[in-house]
Amino acid sequence: MRSFELSFAVGDDAAAGASSTEGAAKKGRVTLQLLYFPYEGGTETAPDPPQSFHTCGLGGKPHVSPLETFWLGRLLPGQAVAPFKFMLPSAALKSKASLPAQCWKRFRGALFLDESFEVVSTKRALAAKSPLTAKLLGLESTRVAERFLKWLSECQHRRQLGVH
Fold first, then answer.
1. Which of 26, 56, 73, 133 shows the smallest number of beta carbons within 10 Å?
2. CATH says 2-12+27-40+47-159 is which class?
3. pLDDT digits (tens, 9 = 90+) for 36-62
4. 3-state class of 126 per DSSP?
């Protein structure tokens, strides 16, 4: 199993990793943590996908498991974040990365959010009308996308000896 971890700021258009600051635009810190489960010894090592796995596919086909979401270290059970656009197979086509369809089903992930993000009063989900929530769910950072695709490609090429 290989891991990927990246911290970045939301509210900062470049997602350049600046820390949260007080100022005109509110920023929040996000840590994206992913685990890649390779195909080894003729078997899949990935755990069974969560119940909501099938809702995040395109055209009814599952592609990528949703991200579990943690706020201040606490799981938000009502908040499974759909994968970011750069985490979908279509992102590889844009970057000309040659990754087989199987590798997109082999990672699971979580988002860790700081206190800048608002949650509903029951603390089960993010506040839907929060500007930071909207920026997080619409994240399209080129820097984050490039690092993710590089990591996924390395996982595929180093660990997938039996899959072409």
1. 73
2. alpha beta
3. 988 888 887 877 765 544 444 434 444
4. strand
Query: What is the DSSP code string of 32-53?
Result: EEEEE--EETTEE-SPPPPGGG
- And the tokens for 55? 């809702």
Print burial letters for 19-54: b (CB count within 10 Å at least 16), e (below 16): ebeeeeebbbbbebbbbbbbbeeeeeebeeeeeebe
Domains in the chain: boundaries: 2-12+27-40+47-159
- Report d(CA 132, CA 136) in Å as an integer: 6
Q: Hey, what amino acid is at 137?
A: L
Q: What is the pLDDT of residue 73?
A: 94
Looking at per-residue pLDDT, the higher value among 56 and 122 belongs to 122
